[in-house]
Amino acid sequence: MSKKGTILCIDDDEGLQIVLGQYLEDDGYKVLAARTFKDALEQSSHPELDAILLDLVLPDGEGLALIPQIKSRSNAAIIVVSGKSDTTEKIVCLEMGADDYITKPFEMRELSARIKAVMRRSAPQAPAPQAQADPAPADKIIFGDWCLDRAQYQLFDKNGTSADLTTGEFRLLEALVTHPNRALSREILFDLTREGNFEAYDRAIDIQIARLRKKIETDPDAPALIKTVRGIGYMFTPPASQASPAEA
User: Fold this and answer.
1) Whole-prediction pTM value?
2) I want to staple 183 with a disulfide (CB 3.0 to 4.6 A). Which of 153, 196, 215, 229 is the partner?
3) Domains plus CATH for the chain?
């Protein structure tokens, strides 16, 4: 069977590691395993890593602290696997850069579906087909001093420096930029960025909006690009001097 990708399972439960490893290998994945914070950090630099299943409780460190460290060295999607169903913890994990969160115990089929979803979202994608009356946006979209490169999955400033967005932040900004001057609810934004898969976290969109504003707004406290529409959600308002995508 051809491999679908490489997954790193980080969990100190040896029994669960064996069960997950066998299931995922049978499903077509190459599986790596780590049971400690130190080992997880080392293996997260694997060049072919596509996704990481991360338990937050490790014998030599807090799994939550691994998220930003992994993000700094790998483009692999992170799914937090936790025995806690606390909403605050879910939000914190997403804010730290995790791509998804699943609570133990879980169905293996659901885990498999979530892995496929985060890997699909993390991989560069061609613009989705749209109705003829609403043509697909260009691969490069210029707004103000920024260039959203949909082909490279990057946001560049006027000097060509990447804004270093997480996968979730990029997808959210892409959803806003490709629907300019439209008030989009949190539910719609979640559907556009998470493809409607599984439970939405009420505060996740707000947290990512706040992080985006800090990275792209001249004054995050008085945003000019991503505006709040009271009672609805958010709206992207292109600068009056916005260049045509054709100029990118």
Assistant:
1) 0.54
2) 229
3) 5-122 (3.40.50.2300), 140-247 (1.10.10.10)
